[in-house]
Structure formats: structure tokens, C-alpha cells
Amino acid sequence: MTSRTIKSSRRTVLKTAGGLLAAAALPRVARAAESYPPLGTWPAGSSGDSVFIGITVPRTGTYAAQGEDELKGYMLAVEHINSGNPLIKKISPKTTKGVLGKQVKYGVADSEAKPNTAVQEQQRFISENKAVLMTGSTSSAVAVALNHLAQREKVLYVAGISGSNDTTGKDCVRYGFRQCFYGQTAAAAIGPVLLKNFGKNRKAAFMTPDYTYGHTVTKSVGDYLTANGGWTTVTDQVSPLGAPDYSSYLTNIANSGAEFLINVNWGHDAVLSTQQAKQFGLLDKMKLVIPYQTPFLAKEVGPEITQGVYAATDFWWTLEDKFPLAKMFVEEFQKKYGYRPEWGAENAYMEFALWAEAVENAGTFYPPEVIKSYEAGRKINSIVGEVYWRGADHQLVRPVTIVRGKKPGDMKNKEDFWEVLEVDPGLPLMQKPDAFGCQLGEST
Amino acid sequence: MITWSNFVSQLFNGLALGALLALISAGLTIIYGTLGVLNLAHGAMFMLGGYAGYVAFQATGSYAIAVIAGALFLVVVGGLVELVVVRHFYNRPPEDQLLVTFGIGIVIVELVRLAFGSLSLTVPAPSWAAGVTSLGFMIYPTYRIVVLAIAAAALAVLYVVLYRTRLGMMVRAGIEDSGMVDMLGINIYRVFMLVFGIGAMAAGFAGIVNAPVVSLTPDMGDGILVQTFVVVVIGGVGSFPGAILGGLIAGEILSLTSMVDPSYSEVMLFVVMTLVLLLRPEGLLGLRGRA
Lengths: 444, 291
Fold this sequence. Notes:
The complex is a heterodimer of chains A (about 450) and B (about 290).
Chain A: H1 2-24, H2 27-35, E1 50-57, H3 64-83, H4 86-91, E2 103-110, H5 115-129, E3 133-135, H6 140-153, E4 156-158, E5 176-177, H7 183-198, E6 203-209, H8 212-229, E7 232-239, H9 247-254, E8 260-263, H10 268-279, H11 282-285, E9 287-290, H12 297-301, H13 303-306, E10 310-313, H14 324-337, H15 343-362, H16 367-375, E11 380-382, E12 385-390, E13 395-397, E14 400-405, E15 418-424
Parallel strand pairs in A: 1-2, 1-3, 3-4, 4-5, 6-7, 6-8, 8-9, 9-10
Antiparallel strand pairs in A: 10-14, 11-12, 12-13, 14-15
Helix pairs in contact in A: 3-15, 5-6, 7-8, 15-16
Chain B: H1 4-35, H2 42-60, H3 63-84, H4 94-116, E1 132-134, E2 139-141, H5 142-164, H6 166-183, H7 188-210, H8 220-235, H9 240-260, H10 265-279
Antiparallel strand pairs in B: 1-2
């Protein structure tokens, strides 16, 4: 153990020294190297002609399908960044090829949607590959854990899919950033739609996965409907991640007198619980609502189940009719992978594109400068229109899209599952930056 | 949410859940009882049964053929796994056996993922069992009632095979003293291979019968494997009647606890298992010193 530590530290010293020498050849980085003290993986991670990103997504378990999709978004973004694709240049106008002229490389590890596994793998990417950026999560439990790792190791982290309020709320950190929508914005977007269509004083049953994402989304949606519409939560069926069967939860819901089934479960849990709700005859008696959409849900359960269902999402591919960059993204993605992207891939692509934008504007990989660049609040042209980062909690201010499931007969192609009803501007949906207890901490 | 009607509903649901768990656990416990190997690939066998049934259903459109093909496929897979790998581990320490079966499970899961991807697949319930049935106290999916009946029938068949046939006698004699059975001129290895096949078939059969209830994913065996272990520990490791009793108890715990607080239903399973281990380490129907 001791010898390994010595060995790796010697390697670190050599690499750092080598990096500093190489950096001297590049005037811009050389200047930076002179002005900033070493921090995290800086300058070692960006001293060569490439930089490394550590990606941990679930490739096994309940969230595997969504993890794979997320990974496709990351890979497409890296390809576009390295080749200077026109789409990346629209989002990050200063990008030429690579980031600050350096090619982006990455490593992928299976997080199994488990915080401990994700942290161990990212720790490995930091020590062995000198990662300048970490990313990946389809579980907010992972996102929160990696947030804290990022802050401790002083290496930037952009969350993957993470719907918990905590990620940019009580567990926010200076080194962590989130692009996607979350419990609070989902609730504030879908709540008014439900009240408008179904009226006040209704009875809802929730299905909630038992971790930070589930609890915060259920609370946000429940609070909104109660405060603004007098809805009551007649039961909240909390289940573990990856539950093999939902019959006992559904039996409780069948006996609860609920008129609405608000299913917060995600990934395969959402697929299974929704299918079994149908089998129990619940969907004939209650209206299904999906406050935080799972990519591929409609494809997996079928449009017979999702027709008429309201859902909130980050992105749906028919937004290509509204946003020119969405059209470019859908075309590029479909060309490469043979199907239209869902929001997991969109989120992943955006995270990397926005990171490239932030680094290019900082002019250095030195993390505190990149953070300052993120926090500057520049208006950025994105796949879903103009967006900007909120400096106070590192949440992207971006729209939330409300969709409704199409009838099988109304679908124009086999991926035309959802109709976009509205695209709600982000800022009015968001809480005050400190409402969920966000304290970012220091950057050095 | 404890009301009388919900209590009766959950009692019934627990029975249905428990019958399926009992069937899967019976496979695990027969293998352990006879071969002394705790098969950690059992969850993968359950999953593989579902996928085999899916393929057969896609090819023929027949539910009956899917169930039979799925089950037979698993007998073959189980027999092959015993012949090629597990057989060489009978004289190795238990930890080697655990590791190798765990490894087999991973290989099976990843091969299925390679072939079918991570997106879930569905096998529809046969048309005669689609829809819901009113039981008076609750409305219940018709197909789940069918699963309950099939699981009970399959357990009855397994019972007859184990306790009323010559093969069953050899298997049970093998559990008692495999060396003596060998000396009596019975090819004990052939019996072991058959037992492993039958054990895998129990899981695979449950997997395909249960396929219309769940959607198939390569990881679906993981959660089931854990619950199956709990069942076997509660009932008594190696005991066939114990697997049935343990399965029913586990089903009822999962269902009834969810009435009080759903987030505790899995936890209660382990609480009961711990209590059994403390008070009766050999399990409710296990024999002392055997397991």
C-alpha cells in the first residue's frame, strides 16, 4: 500500500513537471500556470495536448437503459467538440476544435446508479487520468455524492440526469453544475396544467422511489397541488430502487380512493410500476401523471398506456419545430445512432457543450476561473433556446416542457409518442436560490 | 392504510407473491440440499427463463409453447452449467462455489444484455387471462390468479417427483449421504446434473410464467435472488417444504407491511430473517446440523 502511494505520487510529480514544461510552449496556458497555484488536477490535467473527462453512468440495473442513452449524448458531444461541429459552435461560439485547442478524451465506468461505486470510479479517473471534469448520474443520490467529491477534490462536476431539489439545493457545491429540470421546476410547470384541466380538490396517490429524487419531487408536486388547488394526497407509496414487483403498493392505491396516480418512479421502475398499474385496472379508474419523465417510457409501456398522460420533461424531439438548434441536434443524433434522442441524451450533450462554452470563455482550465465563467450569467444559445446559469446555486435557467401522450392513431411515426403542449420559461418556475438551503462553498 | 378491505386484499396479494417466491426458492433449495452448492446464478436463471420464453413467444405466438420451451431450455442450461463448471467445484471450499456461481450469473446477465439490450421487453398475457377479475373484496389481474394456480401446480409436481418417484428417492438419498448412494451403484453425478437442471428449471419456469406480469430486463433476477435467499433462510436451507412455507411468509410480509408503511416492506423481510436466524438458525423447517 505504502509503496503504491509513493509510486503514484512520484508519477504525479513527474506528470506535473512534464505538464508544466509542455505548458510553457503555449503562451496562454503558460501565463495561467504562472499566475495560479496547483489545485485539484490543475495544471497536470490540462498540460498535455488533450484533457480527460470521467464519465460514470449506470450501465446495469434499474437505470441502465437511460444510462446508455445518456452516454450516447456525451459521446456525440465529445465528437462534436473535437471536430468543431457547427452545432457546438452555435452553443459555444469560441470553440474551434477541442476545448482551448485540446482534444477531449474520456473514460466510462458503470456507476450501477450507486453513489459509492460512482465515487470510487471518479476517484480513479482523478488519480489515474487527471480528469478535468466529472459527469454522469441518472440517480440524484449519485449526483449529490459526486457534488461533494467534486468540492473536496476541486475537480468540476456537471450532473447527468438528476431530478432532486437537493442537487442545486441543500447539497449544492461551488464545483457542481446542473443543466436539467428538477422537482421544483417540474412541479411548477405541470401543476397549473393539472389544475386547469382537472380542477380543484382532487385526490392523488403518489408512487415514490425511496431516495432524494423521489422524496423531493413528490414533495414539490404535492405541495404545489395542495397549496394552489386544495388537492389531497391520499397515499404515498414509497418503494426501494429496483423493486421487483409493485403489487402490494398498487393494492394500497386501489383501496385509497385516489382519482390520480402520480408516478414519480423512474427508469425501469417507472416502466414496471406503470405496466402493473394497468394490469391492476387502476389506469381505467385513475388518471396517470408523470411529473418527471423517464426517457423511453412510452416506447417501453406502449402508447396505449401513455395516451392522454401529462408529463413534464427537459426535451422532446418535436421541439425541433420550435428551436433551430434542437433540429440540428435531433438530425445529428439520429444520423449517428439511428433513433431520435430523448431527454437523457439531450441533457448529456448540453452539459458538455455548456462546459466547453464556459472553459472557452474562461480561457483556462484553472477551475476557479471556469467557475467564474459559469457564474457570469452569460446568455447562451442552446438546444432549447436562450439559457443562462444562475450563479447563486449553479442551476441552469432553462425551460420546462409539458407534453401529453398521443393516441396510437395520431402518431405520425413510431417515435411520435408525445405532443408538446407548452414550453414554460425557466425563471418563474424556480425557487429563490437559497430556498432549499444552498450554500456553494469556496472555489479554492 | 389499514382498512378491512385493504387487509383482505393484501392477504391475497401476499399469497400470490408468495407462491411465485416459493417456486423460485424451491429450485434454489433443492440444488443446495442435494449438491451443497449455493447457486448465486439462480436469479440469472429466473431472468433467462423469461427471455427464453420471450424468444419462443416471438417465434410461435403461443403462450403454452413459450412456457414449455422456456422451461426445457433452462433444464438444458442448468445441466450444462453443472457439467461444465459446477461439477469441478464440489470438492472446493464454499467460497469458491459462491464465487463461481456468482460469476456464471454475471456472464449470463451480460450475454442477455448483449443480445437484447437494456430496454425492457414484454410478453403479453394469453388472451384468455387478460384483464381483471373481481374477487369480491378486490379487483385483481386475472393473469396473476393464473400465475398463483400455475405456481401451486408446479410445486405439487415437484413434490410428487421428489417424494413419490425413484428419482426423488435417489435425490433425497443423495442429500443424506452421497458417498453411500455412489457405492450402491447409482451414478451420483448424473443425479446431480439432473437436480441442477431441475433447480434451474424451477427458476426459469417461474421466470417465463411471471414474464407477462413484469417487463423483462437483464437485471430482473437481482432483486429476486435476494428475496429468494431470504425465503430459503426463513424456511430452512435445503428443505423443500421450508421453501414453500418461507415463500408464503415472505409474500405476506411484503404485502402486509406495505399497508402500514410501504417503505418498510423490504426491511421487514430482513428483520424477520434475522429473528429466524437468532431463534432457529436452521430455519423454520430445516433440520439441525444439515444446513
